[in-house]
Amino acid sequence: MKVDLNEVFEEFAEARRNGFLKVKELKDQGAHIVGTFCTYTPKEIIYAAGGTPVTLCGVSNDTIPAAEIHLPKNLCPLIKSSYGYAISDKCPYMYFSDLVVGETTCDGKKKMYELLGEIKDTYVMQLPHSQDSEYAKNMWKHEVIKFKEKLETKFSTSVTEEKLRESINLCNRERISLSNFYSLGKLIPPPISGYDMFTILNGVLYIFDKEEQIAKLNEITASLKELHANNECKISKTAPRILITGCPLGGVADKIIKQLEEVGAVVVVYENCGGTKNTEKLVDENEEPIKAIADKYLSIPCSVMSPNKGREDMLSNLIKEYKVDGVVEIILQSCHTYAIETRNIKRHVNNLGVPFISIETDYSTSDKGQIRTRLEAFVEML
Q: Which Pfam families match (predicted)?
């Protein structure tokens, strides 16, 4: 059945706001809400414990002044915005969370979690910063087990192997539906703009019924494929094809993605946290559940890992598969791991014969004009 794409885009655009009412309904029904900040948090464990995960990453500049009463001004805007939501009670997702889960990805986050722990029950997973050693793998598996035990105690439940296998299957099916949606960017021309793609990817985070989410994604993917097959795409075949990499985009989408496409390019793939990085690998359903979950999550190639050759490998594959003409890296202010990794990523991308630009920014709009000028020059060069 063909769907009204304008209605779909509007629905996903409003998903975060509409999700406020849904999460209240879930709480009224006795559901356990678990707030998360990072793709390293194993959501299969949360589902198996009868919980509902919801992302708490701040995307607004409005709550940053409140956060700067406690936090330094020269800190990552995502950290400040998230903490600002918490202390100002402006985020229903934070308010309704029974437990907040953090992870030691970066120094700024882990110190913020200490402050957050004064107002919310906050549990921090100790993430190893290497992926290949047996010590790191065993350590992370132990952390996953401890997280399971924390949820069992918190929610007075038992996380059985059967429940784990059910949640693994559910989350794998979600990843497959997301991967199929991402693959629309491989088409020439793509049937959807990068901004609309981001809107949908952001919106699915707030559809708490995973079966409903999977069905909606499959439906819109089928409709967009039909649009392409009928030569009804509105995007030019000659528009330069852009890969976005780097930090999370929630607070900078309008001044980066929107402006990038306004000056003539089209974003076809996202490598960062909200994109393909978390869905490339499934949890092995034939392996012992805890080990399989730990192995999958530890393999995510974030810049907090050292070394992080997995990111370079992923970029190589995506550039080839999506026929990328240029790579735009987004660095949030004071995100040291991504900022330092820029040198190697630029060299790697350039060695593949692809132009690269890195933009460092925050959640304010003060640099919007400057960014547009740089993006215009980059696209014109392509």
A: HGD-D
